[in-house]
Amino acid sequence: MKLLEVKGLVKHYVRKRGLARRETIRAVDGVSFSLAPGETLGLVGESGCGKSTLGRLILRLEEPTAGEVIFEGVNIATCGEKELRERRRHLQIVFQDAYSSLNPRRTVGASVEEPLANFGVPRSERREQVRELLQLVGLNPEEAAKYPHELSGGQRQRVNLARALALQPKLIVCDEPVSSLDVSIRAQILKLFRELKERFRLSYLFISHDLAAVSCLADRVAVMYLGKIMEILPAEALSQARHPYTRALWRSVLPPDPRNRATLEPAVKGEPPDPANPPSGCRFHPRCPQAQELCRWEEPVLREIKGGHLVACHMVV
Amino acid sequence: MATPVLRVKNLSTYFHTSQGVVRAVEQVSFSLAPGKTLCLVGESGCGKSVTALSLLRLVEPPGKIVSGEVWLNGRDLLKLASSELRRVRGKEVALVFQDSLTSLNPVLTVGLQLAETVVAHEGLPWKEARRRAAELLYRLGLPEPERLMRSYPFQLSGGMRQRVSLAMALLLRPRVLVADEPTTALDVTVQAQILAELKRLQRELGMALLLITHDLGVVAAMADEVAVMYAGSIVECGPVTEVFERPAHPYTRALLRSVPRPGEELVPIEGQPPSLLGLPDDRCPFLPRCPEAREECRKRRPELLKVAPGQLVACHYPYMARDEG
């Protein structure tokens, strides 16, 4: 039984250019994948590849242009308001900016209590639940009386996580949840994510540009480029990735090891092109070191090459 | 070792706020040899950026450099008249920041800004100045520099803008480049390109680089020497391989362990960096988070002392090579 199944998901935005010109930005352009209960999928790619949009589409914070998002058997992309509200109980999101996702005029306790109140938990039980939730994320329950500005970045992200956990979700979409944190705090929060996942058998869609962080948490990793998934593979197979883009990303991760520094030569040149005018054929071909004539004309499909390992590349046999 | 091109001695910068004195930089000393790279590493608020700004006397009130010397080419920059300092900035020591959008003028074309720098400092004709700018942009991996020079900063992507800022800093071929998180906001593939370009240019120009970063991967890739800062002070410094492979300070060791590495257990540092406001100076600033803390650490702030050739550490109980078993 799948917890989440995304099929052919598309999101196009229209950008106005001057008075009459309009162009379509293909932020997410036909994405399919699925997630089992308790499984974590890392979603990686460079800025502008559509990974955040994809996360928002799954919660229907954006209306998809086409495609399906089937969560617990219900198509989130088309279901009615009432059904959507009910599903969102089990479907939560945590953002990168821990500060702006909390109401600055509300105490931490009130913020964590809000989802409980919204879903009809009686007032008498809420206070105790808030205490438990704060403890669960490693905060002192006394912090409930504080305001967000009185907390550090790491503590704020813990509060957001407590809020997300309040309704016992099955899936949490995490959009760069540790990217703006300092090294020492980042490790604390990553560890917390992992503990909670194991304890409650949670699933995460863990969106990040940081491959090293993703590989610590994810079971599988999906690599996005210009709105498309280029490769999906088990996290432990990242060092044996097949797609030239995944390999380039992996090689660009700088290990904290001064003896291993010969690898600074860039694996790919240039930057991702404009998603309004994606290249023909394989979207990666202008930057790909292995591109052949075929890659310029024909778009490769995402196909399975081994159990659980999918690649969209003509050059992989 | 070659004569250092930059030598900083006992630099302290304080911020006098309404709530009290913030000792952002406290007694920082280091030196940098020509063509070498020193990385200043630490978490936000540890004083690494204020150190960079202090070198060029760019700290704004309520911040104030309260003591120290910054020797560049036989002159103490902290004692220079402002007219002389202006000539030194850019020409002898240049600065590049993380946020490239704010360091470029939004209403002037890229080409004009770059050429203006050369014209103002070296009195070259405009045409020649533009040619030098175009050449440098090309070397920084920006194709079609002529077209790029006709654009405005907002028309460029983050990676391109960062390279333009870098070009601006390198145009006058400074002897020392101070780069504050120059690749932090960029994608990893672009980061790798810029770091590689920086290294190549450094080799060609014999330029010394003071690189400020929180990213230990960047340090490992770039540094000859590394200085780890915590709560306004350097707590450990030395050759990068020594410091990374045999960290002597508990903070350095913990920091290295908290970097996610594929397939390895994450070991976070508990707690969080202290507030610099009213930080007590009669004890070790790392004390509340330190697994090795003992009585002595509560009584006296440790000084930076030598533990191995070239390696200094500010800890009463440093890890020594023999502890590693």
From TrEMBL, chain A:
PROSITE patterns: ABC_TRANSPORTER_1, ABC_TRANSPORTER_2. Residues 261-283 are annotated as: Disordered. Residues 4-251 form the ABC transporter domain. GO terms for molecular function: ATP binding; ATP hydrolysis activity. SMART domains: AAA (SM00382). Keywords: ATP-binding, Nucleotide-binding, Transport. The keyword Nucleotide-binding applies. One of its GO terms (biological process) is transmembrane transport. NCBIfam families: oligo_HPY (TIGR01727). Belongs to the ABC transporter superfamily. This is ABC transporter ATP-binding protein. The lineage of its organism: Bacteria, Bacillati, Bacillota, Clostridia, Thermoanaerobacterales.
From TrEMBL, chain B:
Keywords: ATP-binding, Cell membrane, Membrane, Nucleotide-binding, Transport. Gene3D superfamilies: P-loop containing nucleotide triphosphate hydrolases (3.40.50.300). Residues 6-256 form the ABC transporter domain. The keyword Transport applies. It is a peripheral membrane protein. Pfam families: ABC_tran, oligo_HPY. GO terms for biological process: peptide transport. One of its GO terms (cellular component) is plasma membrane. It comes from the Bacteria. Belongs to the ABC transporter superfamily. This is ABC transporter ATP-binding protein. It comes from Ammonifex thiophilus.
